[in-house]
Amino acid sequence: MDTTDGHCTEDVKMEKKMDNDFSARLSDATHQHLSISEGPSSSCRRVRGRLRSKPRLQTTKSFPPYSHCIGGLGEDSDSDNEVNSESNTAHQPNLRNEETQGTERKEDTKLVARCARDELKAKWTMRRKERMGGSFEIDTDGWERGRWIGKRRVEASGREKESDDEEGEEKHRRGRNPNAETEINEEEGKERKSSVVSDIKETCEGSVETPGGQSKNVFEPLQLREGSTSRQWSSPHPILSKLLHSSTSNSSCSSINLSSTESDDVFTEGEDADSKRKAFRKCRTWKTYLTMMHWSLRRQSSWVQLAGHQGNLQLSEGGEVLKLYSEVEATCLDCLMRDPLRPFVPQYHGLITRGEHCYIRLEDLLSGLKRPVIMDCKMGVRTYQEEELLKARTKATLRSDMYQKMIKVDPSAPTAEEHAQKGVTKWRYLQWRDTTSSTSTLGFRIEGVMMEDGSVQRDFRKILTLAQATEALLYFTRSQLVILKAYHSRLLALNNALKNSPFFGTHEVIGSSLLFVHDHSSKANVWMIDFGKTNPVPDTRELRHNVPWAEGSREDGYLIGLTSLISSLSQAISVASWQQENHSEQDKTGGLNNTQIQDQVDQMAAVTL
Ligand SMILES: Nc1ncnc2c1ncn2[C@@H]1O[C@H](COP(=O)(O)OP(=O)(O)OP(=O)(O)O)[C@@H](O)[C@H]1O
Ligand SMILES: O=P(O)(O)O[C@@H]1[C@H](O)[C@H](O)[C@@H](OP(=O)(O)O)[C@H](OP(=O)(O)O)[C@H]1O
């Protein structure tokens, strides 16, 4: 455990206390991995004497990334309807805002109309130049330049919009514990692009509705504070209106893959090549223009869905994460906005209806991060609710999909009866997942990790020991001390908040995750997400969260998981410190270079497997 600063000393004290609290309750299997043994590895003979012994992790395995790139799963195809339907209802919750912003709106509308005209002009100028082989530089005024710079940036390097950085900066300030988040490499951009058009875009999707369709200002103070969804335009400029309409309905491109999908609407399946060519000629002008606008309107975000049900979540044009409505989750979020846990939970902005579905509007926790690295840890010693166990006993529904998932991982996992039925109950499947991962032993499991290059690693689910978890954390953070320490502090702060949280005391938290996010500029944070299976405990009982589950107790073991994670981070900090020290020692003595030392470290890690 690194104790180089005062906060860390505090951390150690707190952690020791927590370890004592829980040590009696953790299983032997868990505890045998809590200590890190010191001692040189046999493979280290060549550098022995020069390198301090690496804290050894027991029974570890390494996790090379494999290339499985994913993009955002969000589909915004319903937003077309939403623009129409909401333009009628959206005024109700925001009347007060409308009055106060009337003047501003007139100004903006004028500006928007001018911008749209200028856009057209710019487009034709560009096309003329393009045909003549001229340069693409458009320099009529700052607005167009800003947009075009933006477009080139997206095309050339996929870099993110600077304005988002500022927004993200604000968010990370809000959510962090002073020690939790370290921003050592402040290389944030200086220019802020005009956001008039994206503001209007947000306006079109910004009404807050109850599932029944009635407009309701669920979190007015929040909306005012965040300021992203409060303005309404009754009639945008006709050209702009068309653009908004079209680009909204065609905004199914993922947040990573910025390819436009306009052509999907133009070319439906079954059309012959000729009609496609004709249609393309007809639509090319608009297509080019819409593609340009698409880039302009879409807020650049690095959002991806790492785990969970595919299609449940999507990114809205306004940059919020929309999650399919669940009454249980919405109720929890509502409570959490008034609980000490609020700084650890994405901001909840109420509900929104898109097409036939209702969604929960959440702050995008990845906004402001450049090429984020993400880890989803499912918390608790079980991921099934007690009701699922009762259901499995009384009226068992067999799930063939779960049986298939089971035999894919381990053909010998199902019983003879389950093989014969080719199905398992949900409880059986979830329990099998829990016992074949670190859920049962450590009280958490790593559902998935996405690295900076977009590669996704899900094999961490098979981790069973704390040492393996530590290895995974070192891999996930690339052994960066600053990140590991930020996560460590944030988890200690979360531990404190949980102790003071009335919500936590009275809720059974099942299947909820901690989302770890950081990027190369050392922004790092941890958030509580997914309250779809979090329910108030039936009577007035308070849960302890740090004891193993027994049927009927409703205990979830959330704090067992948190303690394990904190211990694992401490181990990772020790190892990373050791690595760093040896790097600098070698640098001073002019001995092995960094690559050679890393080779040694890798060899040592391999021997401890
Ligand atoms: N507010 C958010 N900001 C950014 N990303 C988010 C946010 N909420 C969720 N995600 C992403 O979506 C993924 C799934 O989220 P979540 O766990 O809420 O979905 P779910 O479908 O309920 O999951 P499960 O199947 O485990 O119940 C997370 O791993 C994360 O990558
Ligand atoms: O990740 P896996 O191994 O694919 O398994 C899923 C995972 O356990 C989800 O948490 C669970 O949803 P809930 O958390 O909502 O129960 C889902 O059940 P489902 O298929 O019934 O949605 C499982 O299929």
TrEMBL record:
InterPro entries: IPK, IPK_sf. It catalyses: 1D-myo-inositol 1,4,5-trisphosphate + ATP = 1D-myo-inositol 1,3,4,5-tetrakisphosphate + ADP + H(+). Pfam families: IPK. GO terms for biological process: inositol phosphate biosynthetic process; phosphatidylinositol phosphate biosynthetic process. Residues 45-55 have a biased composition (Basic residues). Residues 246-261 have a biased composition (Low complexity). Residues 32-44 have a biased composition (Polar residues). Residues 96-111, 187-199 have a biased composition (Basic and acidic residues). Residues 23-111, 154-199, 246-270 are annotated as: Disordered. Keywords: ATP-binding, Kinase, Nucleotide-binding, Transferase. GO terms for cellular component: cytoplasm; nucleus. Belongs to the inositol phosphokinase (IPK) family. This is Kinase. It comes from Scomber scombrus.
